[in-house]
Amino acid sequence: MAAAEKAGVPAVGIFCQGFTEPGLQACLGEGLTAPRIVEFPPPNIQTQTSDEIHENAKVILDKVIQGLIEPAVASQVPQQAKDASPRTIVFKGSLDEVNEFLYRGRFTDGLPVIPPTLEAVETMLKYTDRSPDEVVAVLRPGRREATIWNIAVNGVMAGCRPEFMPILIAVIEAVADPRFGLEHAGATQSSTPAIFLNGPIIKELDFNSGQGSMRPERRGNMAVSRFLRLEMVNVSRYLIGSTDMGSFGRNYTPVMAENEEQSPWQPLSVDRGFEPGDNVVTVILMHCMSDHWETAGSAEVTLNSLAIEVARELKSTITPMVRFGPEMSPVIGLSALIADILSKAGYTKSDIKNYLFEKARVPAYIFDEDLEKDQRGLTACSAVKSELISKIFCESEDPHRLLPVVHNPEEFQIIVGGSMIRCRGFVMGQAGAEGLATSKKIKLPANWDKLPKSRKPIGTI
Fold it and tell me: Which positions ≥6 away from 13 have C-beta within 8 Å?
């Protein structure tokens, strides 16, 4: 709609019931201030038969024509507040009163936050060389400016320590990258960001990279991830029922810091093109996450078990392979014990990726049934003919032929962490253009080594 209108061609958007408001917000986010919108009769179009769709199309035809020929009426465009400087105090009160004010204004994740006082925010700013007024990115769908200042504000609210500030900036740079597709984070499938951390900063700032690394308790793992959710609420303006249409939803997932010391392979950051020793964040939109799968036995038994788990879990990302291709970023998390078993048997990360590509497969009829349900009339072979996926998906018409769950082996992202004494791992699905893996280097300020940091491990006095 936005592209057509910008080209001078009238366009009418047809939205299902319940999606008119998010549709309007999406239009405004794309700079289309006078969208022409028609609502399709309920129930949701995906549950209607072809005959019902045709009848309902007749019902709205006159409205569509009217929308095309009459002048468009401008909608009210939400503007980023400009009437107060970042240092203006907008509310005073007790801890409970401040939290109630922020909660009623929809500026929290529903839980109490640390009040972003001027003193707390300015302390955060000491841990970056960048100007508080610098615009790091304009975040969709709200198209509001993520500045160094409001990154610090949301960091304080999330409970981040000041020394986390360089990580927070890198996280926003990652999700603002067009490759990440932040504008899709409010989709009905309820994907949620997952953050992975590499580099010496893991130990320096006491992130947990071992047992229970994605559990609560460790401040860095929890607070950095919570920060991103708050930034998405307060700057992206992802609000439930408006721009956030998650059907059920998922909470934020604690940061997973890689256990680089226990891994027999190069870390994820090096796989993604960075130098050893670089501090790096990688972010994806998590489509799904498996049970913490367990195995026992030889390397070959372990790989076979992993392939079964990958096929089972990533079966749900078949449709996104076609709709949101041609790239995916599923994550394979392995404990250091599993990584050691595989490495000692001579398997590299590349070997594992190739094995999973060949062995983690699903029958074509399952692939086609999933496509038929979501993309009416489409099959793996018709998707190949339309050049949506590669020829490997239609080497025959046999409905029992086995198809891969990714486009190519290198799409698998492998990271090592969690318990060092258990044969466990996980599979994290990712839906193509809806949150592809995006990595950014963490840039430390020039005086980083002179800045005070809390290095006291948890559990000590």
Answer: 1, 23, 27, 35, 36, 37, 38
Reading the block at residue 255, the tokens are 């940061």
Burial class, 222, CB count within 10 angstroms (exposed 0-12 / middle 13-18 / buried 19+) = buried
Residue 227, pLDDT > 90, answer yes
**What letter does residue 337 receive in the DSSP assignment?**
H
Q: What is the DSSP letter of 79?
A: -
* pLDDT 10s digits, 322-357: 888 789 999 999 999 999 999 999 999 999 999 999
Global confidence as pTM: 0.91
Domain-located, residue 428:
yes
Looking at the fold, whether 107 and 150 belong to one and the same domain comes out as: yes
Nearest residue to 376 via CA among 50, 145, 152, 79: 50
30 and 119 fall within a common domain: no
Range of the domain at 125: 95-360+405-450
Q: Note whether 36 and 99 are same-domain residues.
A: no
Structural domain contains residue 444: yes
Pair (44, 140) in one structural domain:
no
Same domain for 100 and 58?
no
User: What is the dihedral sign for C-alpha 83, 89, 92, 95?
Assistant: positive
The token duo for 446 is 């020039």
Nearest to 263 by CA among 341, 353, 351: 341
Query: What stretches of 199-344 adopt beta strand conformation (E)?
Result: 256-257, 280-289, 293-294, 331-334
